[in-house]
Amino acid sequence: MKFAEKDFIIQEKMINKPKELIIKATAPSNIALVKYWGKHGLQLPMNPSISFTLNNSLTQTNAHLSVLKKPLNTVPFTFYLDQKHQPNFEPKIADFFKKIQNFAPFVTYFNWKIYSHNTFPHSSGIASSASGFAALAKIIVDLEKHLYPPQTEEYYTKKISFLARLGSGSASRSTEHPVMIWGLHHKIKNTSDLYAIVPEFEIHPIFKTFKDSIVLVEKGQKKVSSSIGHNLMNQHPFKNIRKQQAYNRVSLMTEYLKSGDLENFIKLTESEALGLHALMMTSDPDYILMQPDTLKIIHNIRNIRKETGLPVCFTLDAGANVHILYPEKIFKQLQKFLFKKLEIEIIHDFV
Ligand code: PMV
To answer: I need a labelling partner for 4 at 20 to 30 A (CA). Which of 51, 210, 274, 291 fits?
Structure first.
C-alpha cells in the first residue's frame, strides 16, 4: 500500500497520557549504491536511491520522557552522546522536531532526555545522522503507539521512514533490511519520495553475505555538509542529466541485485561513487572531499581486482572514507592482499 503525506497526520484522539516513559530503539546505518544527491521541498529527493543496510554500525537511543503541564510550541530536550551532553548536535535535532510537528504533534507534550550511543567510532565519517534519526523516528512512532489507538504495522513501518527522512534524507533508508529504495520510480512498485521501502524482489544469495569494510581516511566532522552539497545541485549544470542517470541506474542496480551479476554491480557501484564526487567537483563553488589516501585505496582495489580477479569494489559517501564492498567468502584474501597493507583504521561491517 502507498501512503500520502496526509495519511501520516494523526486524526484520532489521544487515549493515554503517561506521566513518565522510557523508550528505547536501535537503528542501523546504510550505504547507498545509487546515491541521493540533491533535494527539494520538504526534504524530497531529486532522484531515487538504493542502499545496503549496514548491520554492525548502529545507533542505540534511549529517550526519557516526562509529561509537561502544558504542551509547548517547541520541544524541550537535551541530547547526550555516550552520557555526555552534546549541545552541538542539538540544532539539527531541534529542526527535526519542528519539521515533524504536523505529523507527531504529541512530541511537544513531553520533556525529552535523549541518550545515544553509536557502536562505531564517533565522527568517524560513518553516517551517524542516518542511524541517529532513524532510531529517533522509531522512538517517536513507538510513542505514538502508546498514546493513540492502534494502526496497521505497515503504517508504523512507513511512518518511521517518513519521519526519519525529515531528519536526514538518507535516514529514511536506515529503517529496514537488507536493501532499501527511497524515491519514486515508476518501474518499481510502491516506491515513494516520502519514505523508503524494501523492494519486493528477492536479492541474490551472493549479496546476502556482502561485507562493507570502511577505511577511515578522515575522521571527524565533514568539511562540507551534505546540505550544502544537496543545495548546490539546484543550479548544477548536470542536474537534469544526473536525475535521469540515477533513475536509470536504480533500475539497473535492482536487476544486478536480483541476478547476482557481480561484474556489472561492481562497474555501476564504482561509477556512482566517482560520479557523486564528480558532481561536487563541478558544482559552483566546487569542492573536493577525496584525500590522497582515498585515491591510493581506490587504485589498490582496482589493481587487486585486475591481478586476482577477486570481486571487490569501492563506494564513497560525501567524505574521504572508502567503503570496500565484497562477498564475505573473500575476506581472508582481502585481509592478506589489501587490508593489512593499508595501515589505516578499518571498520568491518556486513549487509
Ligand atoms: O542524508 P544526507 O542529507 O546526509 O545526504 C546523504 C547523501 C549521500 O550519503 C552522499 C548519498 C546517500 O544516498 O546516502
So the answer is: 51
